[in-house]
Amino acid sequence: MNSPVFLRILKSEWLKTKRSPGRWMIFIIPVLTAMIFIWYFSKLTLSNDIQVKIYQSFFEFWTALVIPVGTGVLAGLIVQQEEFAGNFIALLGSPFSRTSHYLGKLVILILQTIVSSMSAVFSLLCGLKLFLEIDVPYSHFLLAVLTTEAGLLPLLALHLWIGMAYGFGAAIGLGSGGVILAALVGATSLGNKIWPFVPWAWPVRLSLMPGHFFPGMDLPTSITSLTFFWHQTLMSVVLSALLFVFLVTGGSIWFNKWEGRKIPD
């Protein structure tokens, strides 16, 4: 792949988001989410395990609700831009390879989710420090963002593929359905044995892994050990990487043969 050409495509894809709701969504929604949690915990009596409660409740909410829905919306908006720009004519008629365009859209989607999660965590940590005077281990939150994104990658590839093939509504529907799986399998004990095989549970479970090492976390030693952490994390990351490669490869091959989609009047 020609690097200068791909950088031009990335710049073009980013400029396309200038008038899209996705541009402000990745900043406003994270800040609003952080503000809600800061307000909520300001009403509670601060206890010794307040750091653990903040960490768990924030990432469970973020990964089980905001991320599934947000992924569907962002992927749908990326596709919708091409629909409104001449029913994919500009995209399909580009002199550059279709694979480059497809990967460009995927990279923009990945960057949007990273920026969104980082904005949410940064806003939360600043708010806790400034308004509640609560110090939390920043490294745990930052590591959780990385593990969340590692589990999210195949879902981003899947949403983009579904969005291109079936439209904005399908991407939103897939994200909404993902909320149920993420909440039940990822955030409850129902998924303790099966979550490594349910992609929608990966961002939830992986985001909570670093929290096992919080001071005051009351968990069995077998769960808080580094061996358990690396085994669970690596197994999920490897599965996520394999599925990501499969979906990106499949999506690229499909997109190279795709001739557009008829949009209802």
Quaternary state of the chains? single chain
Distance between the termini: 37 Å
Q: How many domains is the backbone divided into? A: 1
Shape: globular
Protein name: Lantibiotic immunity ABC transporter MutG family permease subunit
Transmembrane segments: 21-41, 61-79, 106-132, 138-158, 165-187, 234-255
Keywords: Membrane, Transmembrane, Transmembrane helix
List key phrases describing it.
265 residues; mainly alpha; 75% helix
Descriptive account of the structure:
The chain has 265 residues and is mainly alpha-helical. The chain has one domain (3-257). The protein is built from 10 helices and no strands. Helix 1 packs across helix 5 (98-131) and helix 3 (50-84) runs antiparallel to helix 8. The longest helix is centred in the N-terminal third of the chain and has 35 residues, at 50-84. The chain is globular and about 60 Å long.
Which helices and strands appear, and what pairs or packs with what?
Elements: H1 3-16, H2 21-42, H3 50-84, H4 89-92, H5 98-131, H6 138-166, H7 168-186, H8 202-208, H9 221-224, H10 226-257
